[in-house]
């Protein structure tokens, strides 16, 4: 068979590009995927009748109406607003920090004004914010840092927050109100039948063919395609690690079926001070699935082995990526898309937005 495009990777970036090429241009696409399933990181499946997300909790949220409308062609949505609690000193307190976090943590009765006074009394005077540790000390002070951030960050990244650039933590908001939602975006929800079903509907076209359990390098020389290769895999692998490996912080996901109706109050509870895992997700609370007597939970164990999750935020690896980026810019017959090729943490909506823009600007 001959194709117009070959796409490496069946994650949301590859699937969005395949869908656009097949349905709008009526051209033939082959998707080659290394894993035994489509969906990339958003893949979900039934385990003991409970829908679980294999690569950790994924909640759709976006400010971009265009992205929401695009994905809404392939799924209906369940209304869901994400709330996270953090287990500290035996208490469950809302994250990100809002008035109720401080009230619960310190048995206070603060309101919007007195929260500001409390913060002013406790925050440290840091002249120049250089690290993630500085961000929290300057915003909330040392006790909050020690209770909620220090161990969590160290565990998540394998190094102290004092060694991480300020932008790693500055993305976490501090709210001087009672808003305990994790995301503030206008569009938030979970796909009604799960992410995998949504992904399957994206590639229903007869123009799209999928080869699973296949590394593209084993096949690419034998495949006939007359337009471009679209690559959404790791960029260092594409260039045979010529500038060395790009480091990722990885996660190991360990799920468990518990014989209870409910395991915890909300879908995600953080355990900043557990020595090993960072958080527990209870999937029924994400998906609103009704099933009695059992529930599925998942613990996340960070490390340098496991699923590649977060590009490592140090200058050494950003510089290394720049060397690869210079090579990417020279390619005429390859289009790069997605989190692994761009060595960047993207939320789902930005991956889809980026793919839609690539289609409009570079393919159509
Ligand atoms: P991927 O989904 O990684 O897809 C790339 C695909 O390429 C993979 O399937 C891979 O197997 C395949 N591949 C790689 N190499 C090869 C090869 N050599 N040959 C063939 N195939 C190959 N975003 C949100 O919006 N909300 C969330 O709540 C959220 N939670 C997250 C939680 C975690 C723990 C993580 C790590 C990410 C989360 N994200 C979330 C981000 C989301 O996972 C990504 O934005 C999205 O999945 C990226 O899609 P992608 O197609 O770029 O990459």
UniProtKB/TrEMBL annotation:
Q: Which GO terms describe its cellular component?
A: cytosol
- Residue stretches making up the UDP-galactopyranose mutase C-terminal domain: 147-345
Which InterPro entries does the entry link to? Answer: UDP-GALP_mutase, UDP-GalPyranose_mutase_C
From which domain of life does this come? Archaea
Sorted UniProt keywords: FAD, Flavoprotein, Isomerase
Q: List the Pfam families hit by this protein, alphabetically.
A: GLF, NAD_binding_8
Q: Which cofactor does it need?
A: FAD
A GO molecular-function descriptor: flavin adenine dinucleotide binding
Q: Which residues form a coiled coil?
A: none
- NCBIfam families found in the cross-reference section: UDP-GALP_mutase
Protein family per UniProt: Belongs to the UDP-galactopyranose/dTDP-fucopyranose mutase family.
Q: What is this protein's name?
A: UDP-galactopyranose mutase
Q: Which organism is it from?
A: Methanobrevibacter millerae
